[in-house]
Amino acid sequence: MAVLDLDGGCGCDDDGRRPRRGGTAWTCAAHVITAVIGSGVLSLAWSVAQLGWAAGPACMLCLALVTYVSAALLADCYRRGDPEKGLPRNRCYTDAVRAYLGKKHTWACGSLQFVSLYGCGVAYTITTATSIRAILKANCYHKHGYNAPCSYDGSYYMLVFGAAQLFLSFIPDFHDMAWLSVVAAVMSFSYAFIGLGLGLATTITNGTIKGSTTGVPMRTPVQKIWRVSQAIGDIAFAYPYSLILLEIQDTLKSPPAENKTMKRASMISILVTTFFYLCCGCFGYAAFGSDAPGNLLTGFGFYEPYWLIDFANACIILHLLGGYQVYSQPIFQFADRFFAERFPDSGFVNDFHTVRVPCLPPWRLNLLRVCFRTLYVASTTAVAVAFPYFNEVLALLGALNFWPLAIYFPVEMYFIQRNVARWSARWLVLQAFSVVCLLVSAFALVGSIEGLVTQKLG
């Protein structure tokens, strides 16, 4: 039987764009899992240690449920109307906010998005320097013994990482290189599986499960509250993927309606991610108890085999070298467009100059890019040097962006997309959901700020 080609044989999608989308629930789930599992997984053992055996796994499960609800609401906002009717698409998060909530909300969303991307650059700078120090320490301990004074200054390695990122920032179309995402994905899974395997092996070697129901004891109840809030912020950093959900959904073929496929893919990816997170966090806590390190692979819960620790940290470094660029390129692109529109006649903004370097292809450099990207990389490096605190920075980023980007905007857009009547049962339930998440996010934010201040003053 012949198949009717509805696009006239042009290979176009339903809105005339090329190429036609071919993504499925499984490819979508793979994209989400690859994007979500990253450096945040390394702090989960510490987070479970602060919360204890009762609240730690429960918090992960609750945030998994919240993430799925948020993803389902946002998936329904992909089409501007009935998903079954093939109406116009919102191809990215800010497009959806602009279409449903207007210009002011778009500016607020864009600002928060850029703060999140900038913060990831700071976190990646801290994490990379910590991993370099971990390699040096592991080798030092292996050679001289675990009581040797193996100490290395992290600031120097942050500057080295900043210099590398400054170089990478000027490679043309770096963000479009397919190998970058492939390498980053392979590296993230490698070090995450190594952390999981070492935690399991250590637990088996110990012959006992460490930890307690209430977690790490603190000297005062107030200190315990702050630690709990930081742990919640760390877990919140590891879960949501709202900023990239619509971009991933835009790869799905239709029919069936993209929102149905996306919900199925979200369910698959969140189940896989939650299982993986529970294993990493719980086995890490079971292995070390109250001594669970803030970063599972660099806090030196593990000493041997030193070569495996070196390999895992090398994977982290390679992942974050590319990851920094992935998160920075949207800001670079925005700056290029913004200044080009504001100053169309400026040679400083628009003129390109060819630079030839021996053994390398010619580079086309722009003075605005040189200045802006240099200042950007320098500023992320300076902030990382000033606040080199892995867990507190992750908690701050998780708390700062969790409610507005993962909860508030999806809920408000869903109300408009589905024409949800005010004070209806669905409206009340979702508003209550948003308020509870706001309170949790605020609690985590205050605790993470307190942690940063305490670390800085201490």
Brief write-up:
This protein is an all-alpha fold.
Structure explained in plain terms:
Helix content is 69%, strand content 2%. It is mainly alpha-helical and 458 residues long. The chain has one domain (25-457): Up-down Bundle (Amino acid/polyamine transporter I). The longest helix is centred in the first third of the chain and has 42 residues, at 103-144. The chain is globular. It starts with 24 loop residues before the first helix and ends with a helix.
Order of helices and strands: HHHHHHHHHHHEEHHH
Query: What is the CATH architecture descriptor?
Result: Up-down Bundle
Kindly report the CATH topology.
Answer: Amino acid/polyamine transporter I
**Structure class:** mainly alpha
Counted by DSSP, the helix tally is 14
Shape: globular
The helicity comes to 55-70%
Report the major sheet.
2 strands, antiparallel
Strand residues, percent: under 5%
Biggest sheet: strand arrangement: 1-2
Measured between the Cα atoms of the first and last residue, the distance is: 75 Å
CATH superfamily: Amino acid/polyamine transporter I
Provide the low-confidence segments as ranges: 1-10
Count of β-strands:
2
CATH class: Mainly Alpha
Radius of gyration: 23 Å
The tally of structural domains comes to 1
Overall mean pLDDT: 81
